[in-house]
Amino acid sequence: MSQPTSNRALYGIVAEYADDAALLAAAKAARSEGYTVMDAYSPVPVHGIYEAMGGTRTKLPLVTLLGGLAGLGGGLGLQVWVSAIEYPINVGGRPFLSWAAFFPVTFACTILGAALASLIGMLVMNNFPEPYHPIFNTPNFDAATKDRYFFCIEAADPKFDAESVRAFLKNTGAEAVSEVEP
Amino acid sequence: MAKDAKFREEALGQVDDMLAPGQTFASIDRDITDLVLTKKAPKAWWVALFVSGILLGFLMLAITGLFFYGLGIWGINAPVGWGIAIVNMVWWIGIGHAGTLISAILFLFGQDWRVSINRFAEAMTIFAVSAAGLFPVLHLGRPWLVYWFFPYPNTLGMWPQFRSPLMWDVFAITAYVLTSAMFWYLGMIPDLAAMRDRAKLKIQKVLYGIHALGWRGSALHWHRYEVAYTLFAGLATPLVVSVHSIVALDFATSVIPGWHTTIFPPYFVAGAVFSGFAMVLTLLIPIRRVYRLEKFITLRHIDNMAKIMFANGLIVFYGYLNEVFFGWYSAHEFEMYMIWNRMTGPYAWSFWALIFCNGVVPQLLWLKRIRTHTIALFIISIIINIGMWLERFVIVVTSLHRDFLPSSWGMYMPTFWDWALYLGSIGFFAFALLLFIRWVPMISIFEVKEVNHKHNH
Fold this sequence. Notes:
heterodimer; A: alpha+beta; 2 domains; four-stranded antiparallel β-sheet; 5 helices; 42% helix; rod-shaped; B: mainly alpha; Formate dehydrogenase/DMSO reductase fold; 16 helices; globular
């Protein structure tokens, strides 16, 4: 990180694989080698790779729960405030705080709040929209959405050393290894 | 378990794969993206676009006429104040439910076959619910004041009445259309990235690129994406049940004989799924043929959809029998008359046509030969679509036209303007769907790859 091993600035070194098993094996090997800053790219989700790279469970369910609770509180609060406080209308002497009748709108607001939080939370956590990313400079990276799998050890890794990373990736059965600029 | 299922399928004969064999990631990718990116639109697409364009013209005509002359040009009058505008609204909302069921409930139950049809069915949901939304708004009389439905501080000092089922509808349908649209877009992000990477023209690259938001298939992103997708499926699942229940409450909370019944919410939901699957089949059978999608949408999909449709059809038919039974069992003069009037009164034709379309014809679906015969199934699905429209016609019109006092009885017949609006809404729906299949991959690429991977390894 602080002592660049090559005179060019690098984003990372990227290996290309033909199948998900090789990708998963490479991620596990990299982890046991002591690398920490890495990412894998695949056309379909590869199960177990996120955990293999040392990922921790996302907070997205919590964000969704909070969104749902905000929808619930907002929807119910709005109806209570409108119907009982701000604009009370006496309909046949029924109570202003007729909570049972508020259920459908509260429910709809809860779902909508949770759904919005879930989508927006996912986009924000993934830093979307992000039209440019250095990984797009990888040769043949277009195929990452088709049928090829890519694995990158990033230059930000404290253990990053271009020569040893390159040698390591070549040993994992990569079909191509390339240096990628930011 | 898996062995058991396999054995059962073989014992039944006619085993059909979930996806045609011999497909690779590259071939799936090419087959689906080429439909949009490189292939010319088939002739049938242009013909369909032309016809739906004409119908869309009817929509413009109907709305212009309505705004110019007012609601009086429709057939509605006392005592039938709802007419086919509400029939159409309920029909379209119901159709939408199949998409949500396929994308959410089948996902939670791990039904892999959904991947070939979920994108299309969700698109159908969004356009159907949008078409549904036209009717109550145009029915307002002063549709330019539609924003009064929304609770916002205004200079009139007024607020909406939250105890009214019509307000519940506003919220239920708004939440439904927004959640469905978000779910649809969420499911499409990785495929839009695939489109961006496969695009040949600069303009395609830019447009798909913008909408793909920079998706690059990162493991970190996939992880959050899958969590979000599962959460969305969990959130959309109660909507399948709630939205049409709330629509049913528009009727059930009133005191009109024929509407005031507790069976309405569940029976509306079953009817919604029934009509939704009928519409999916009506649309997918010709599209599968024209676009040669047999390797993605196999007879197994067709059979499964027919089964779900049939099961819900039986529930709906049970609902009809129940209505008749309770009409009699209530020993309530007006309820009994309502049922009798339905079966023998001036609108008896609609009741018996409904029983024929939704009760008798679907019995053919007991036969596997019919469920896997695309032409027969196409015809049956159209009959069911008509039947479901008639169901709402029977509910709305026969209940209203003779309620309590014979002096206030009346007849209702839709006018040219009613029909023009209905045809127009079909045009809107079809036009939007045609643009969708032209511009967006209509089958979920990455999910089909995933299922292909799972079953071939």
